[in-house]
Structure formats: structure tokens, C-alpha cells
Amino acid sequence: MGVKLPLIFAERMKSLLGDEFEQFMKSYEQSPHAGLRVNTLKISMEQFDEIAPFDLRSIPWCETGFYVPHGVKPGLHPYYHAGLYYIQEPSAMAPVELLQVEPGDRVLDLCAAPGGKTTQIAAKLQGKGVLVTNDIHAERTKALAKNVELYGVRNAVVLNESPERIANAFPHYFDKVLIDAPCSGEGMFRKDEDMVKSWEHHSVEKCVLMQRDILETAARLLAPGGTIVYSTCTFAPEENEAMIAEFLNVNRDFVVMDIPEDTGFATGRPEWVRQMMPEKAEETEAVLDQTRGTARLWPHLLEGEGHYVAVLQHRLGQEVETDQPGVVKEGAMEYGQVVDVSRIEAEGNKDHSIAASSIAITKADRKKERLLRIESRESHDRQAGGGKNSGRQSKKGKDHGGRKSERGHGRGADSASIDPVEIYSQFMKEQLEIELTGETVCYGDRVYQSSVGAARLEGLKVIRPGWFMGTIKNGRFVPSHPLACALNASEARRSVNLSSADGEAVRYLKGETLNIEEERVVLKADTFAKGYVLVCVDGYAAGWGKWLDGVLKNEYPAGWRWTSV
Predict the structure, then answer these.
(1) Catalytic: 536?
(2) Is 95 helix (H, G, I), strand (E, B) or coil?
(3) Given the DSSP bridges, would you call strands 106-109 and 174-180 parallel, antiparallel or unpaired?
(4) Contact call for residues 452 and 466 (beta carbons, < 8 A)
(5) How far apart are CA 67 and CA 234, in angstroms?
(6) pLDDT single digits (tens) 385-430
(7) Which residues contact 107 (CB under 8 A, 6 or more apart)?
(8) What is the spatial order of strands in the sheet that 85-87 belongs to?
């Protein structure tokens, strides 16, 4: 057997799966499946099909996803460093597909690091709408922010916050909320054997506490009529069907949306809750059968690892009844049950529970709040869509780990005589042909374009308040690498194209200086070759260079450079 499974886990799965157990166990003798997902923010599916450097096979449940042949290493290709695709486990692509994100949506990825699902959401938004992506672990937000930047996401805000504090800043704001919940990780045993060791010291009960808290808070974050997708990579019914049934039992204005089985997904198993947790089943019996409409992804039934996904739809404007005909449930509300949440964080772990009381809202209150919310949203959209940049200035702060984060308002650039927004705007006019949207926000000498704006982020631990454009140094604007990553060649007044086939692109990605003849610098009208150049790999932006007299000085950041032989 390829993976040595914990005896307790194997015995439990045998009791649950019955006749399927032998087939399930045989799946652990097989190698895990590798996948990649095309980043349609930077390249269309048709374009990728023309230049794909590998023999790829489509993943049934993700139109931009492909299986990678065994032995192929897609991370060792210039296209990976140009952000043309994200390396992602195939089953992990399912939750975002089921979220059904549309351009213009406001979307929250609540437990986002390292950012695979965030970049998948961003590709579906196509630069329109709002994407807030968050992880509670400060260290993990480094990878999250880097992936947001590498894959050319313009409309994302990266946070390092608790769900409760986000809910206070964004009450009933998001059309779609993704919860890739912290879980016991049983579905990843084949892919990562370290998960087996972790599972033996990681309590399902602790995960349940976190999941309960996160789900309840998500209801406060969701706009009327919105959708929550809840996913785990575990088989444990306590963290899956039982958790969803508990949420539905408390929040009767949500329903499970059935997930089609035609992609190889299996149905949820409410009978396992009855088998393993009879008391929980009795408590949630009125809604438990809804969980059959959720989905389980099994490694012995499809080409992917173990996952669970539930799609929860808020029923806009419907009265919610109890089991007794004609009796409206006390505390039933338009937006889901509102709770005052207090986090109890034990030393050494992130466990937390909720202590709350329901707050009833009258029909008049609900109508008034809905009108105010619509008015507020229209105001926000006018600001974001009109390209009117406020030039708001904020101060630098530090998170609890001492790492720089962007938070609060205060001083602007170091010198009061320098207007950072004016310097930044002048650079954009001279170097790029791009229409900016959202709000220009300055944190010290760093300039961002924010789809949310500084005011709503006040007091939060913000890793990136928006698209990082660059810094003000000695009265000049220095463009950032994330600015280059999110551009296309037609938006730059100077660009140069490097080939992935002859080693030139790899030399650039390693940080080498290149000799580039002036004729290779593509110029827009009335532009000289000297200056910042957008460097592209086979036509797709990879970073900056500075061209002068036949030499391209490399501006590719040291921490991002190609280190493989």
C-alpha cells in the first residue's frame, strides 16, 4: 500500500463505506493526480491551447482545468513564472466552479491561503467587481499576496483578519462567500503523507468549533439572496453533513442547492450523521435530508483527492417557518441570523466558539436597511466605475508579527512637499495606456488602486489594500512588479518580447542583464526607446526592465527569480 493509514481512520471508513471500502482502499495504491488551471486573466483558453507546452487532458468539473501527465513539472517552465497557469489539485478546483462567480460580483474568499481558489475567483471576475481574500494566519498571507500579484489580479484586497472583524467592516456586503474551511484533512492523505501525522494530533472536534464559528459569521457577511460555498478536504461527517445541517437548523432562510452528479461527484450522506451522531441527527432532522444535495468527491470514484462541497443559497425575502404550521420561527431574519460573536482563542491553537443571542428585525427595518444598502452600493459603483481617484493617504502599520501591513489613515508621503498621487498619475500617463478604476490609496510611499477604498479598511490588518502600483522614491514613481504582472503588452508604451524556446526568457527570469537591439523594443507613437519596458514572455507580461543603448537592465525582483537549473 502506498500510504499507511491510521487504524482508527480505516476502521471508521470501513463502517461507513461498507461494500465500497475495498475500492476506496485500493485508491491509496495509486499516485495522486496533478493538475493545472489556465489563468484566463492573462491568456484565453484558445491562446493557451495554441502554445500549451504539455500534453493535457481536461478536468470534467473545471473548464479551465487540466490533468498534468505523471512526471511533468509545470513549475519549471517560463509560462508558470509569467502567471499563465496555476498548479492546483484537480478536486480543489470544484468549490469555486460551484460558487458560480460572475463579473461584477462582490466575492469573499474567507480562508484563502495560499491563493489557488482566490486566483480562480479572480479569473471569473475578469477585473470587474470586488474580491476580498483573507487568511487568519499572518505567515500564510505572504504566499497569498504573492499569488494574487503573480496572476495579475487587479481588484483584490488581501487581509489577515478574523472572520468576525471582517463582518464588522463588511456587514451583508458580499454576493458570494467561499469557505474553504480548516479541517482534519483526511482527503489529502494520498497527496501529502504529512497530513496523516497531522491528523493523529489534530482533533475533529477542534475543527468543528472553528467551522461552526466561520459559517455563522459568513451569514453576517452575505448580501440578501447571496451564496455561500462551504468546502473541506475531509471525509468526516461531523465536519461535513452534520455541520451543514446544524447551520441550516439555525439559519432557516438558507437552503442547500443540489449539486449535479454528472461530473462524477457523489451525493452527501445524511444517513452517516444518523449512524454516527444520533443526537445531532435528531436535533437537525427537519433539515438533515437537504445535505443529500451536497457533494462528496471520492478518490476511488474520480481522478482527484477527497473533498466535500455544499452550496448554500440565501432565500431573499421569504418568511421562515418552524416545524409547526403557521408559526414563524422567533428571530427569523432577512439576512440570516445575526449574532454577537466572541472568539475564545486557546493558547497554542485557533479554536473558537460562539456565544450569541438573536436579534429580531421587523419588516419595516428590513425594508429600510435594504434601501440603504442599495443606495450605498450604487454610490460605491459610481465611484469605482468612474475612475475618480481620491488619492487617499494612509499610514503604515505593523501586524502582531511585526511585519509591515497597510492599515489606518494618517500621514502621506514622507515629504509634505511631494504629492504622491500627482507623481504617480504623471508616470501612468507617460508610460502606460490604461484606464484606472477604483480609489488611489497611498500608504506611506506605496501607491495602490483599491476596489474597496481606504475608509472601509480602517482598523483592519491589511496586507494589500488593492493592486500595488509602485512606490515614490526621491520624488519619482518606481513601478512595482505586481503592476507589470497585471498588464498586457498593448497597455505599455514600451515592451519587448522574449522567447521561451531559446533560453532568453529564462535568463531574464534569473535576473540577468540582456542585450536587446533597439529594433526589438515595441514603441507606441511619440515614445522613445529609453526607459521602463514591459518585458513579455511569448507575448505575456512577466516584469519590468530598463532599456538604454542596447542593454536591458533587469528589474525582475530578487525574491521572485528562477532558481532551478
Answers:
(1) no
(2) helix
(3) parallel
(4) yes
(5) 22
(6) 333 344 555 544 444 333 345 544 333 334 456 688 999 999 999 9
(7) 99, 101, 121, 125, 129, 130, 131, 132, 174, 175, 176, 177, 178
(8) 57-59, 62-68, 34-38, 85-87
- 8 Å CB contact between 483 and 464: no
Q: Kindly report, residue by residue over 348-397, the tens digit of the pLDDT.
A: 333 222 222 222 233 344 344 344 434 444 444 444 333 334 455 554 44
Report the side by side order of strands in the sheet with 514-515: 514-515, 551-554, 540-548, 531-537, 494-498, 522-523
Residue type (1 letter), 143: A
Cα Rg for the chain, rounded, in angstroms?
A: 25
CA–CA dist 15, 22 (Å, integer): 12
DSSP 513-542: -EE--GGGSEE-TT--SSEEEEEEETTEEE
* Cell numbers at 50, concatenated: 495554441
Confirm if 243 and 211 have CB atoms less than 8 A apart. Answer: yes
Cα–Cα dist 537/546, whole Å: 16
**Beta strands, E only, 251-327:** 254-256, 266-267, 295-297, 307-314
C-alpha cell of residue 502: 531559446
Helix (H, G, I), strand (E, B), or coil: what is residue 133? strand
Strands 307-314 and 254-256: antiparallel
Q: Which of 183, 233, 442, 485 is catalytic?
A: 233
Whether 534 and 487 have beta carbons less than 8 Å apart is answered as: yes
Contact partners, residue 8, CB within 8 Å, separation at least 6: none
The tens digit of pLDDT for each residue in 171-221 reads 999 999 999 999 999 999 988 877 887 787 777 888 999 999 999 999 999
557 contacts 508 by C-beta, under 8 angstroms? no
Stated pTM of the model: 0.84
DSSP state of 31: P
> C-alpha cell of 367?
425594508
Q: In what order do the strands lie in the sheet with 467-473?
A: 392-394, 439-443, 446-450, 467-473, 476-479
Contact between 125 and 107 (Cβ < 8 Å): yes
In order of 154, 458, 512, the CA distances from 384 in angstroms are 13, 18, 39
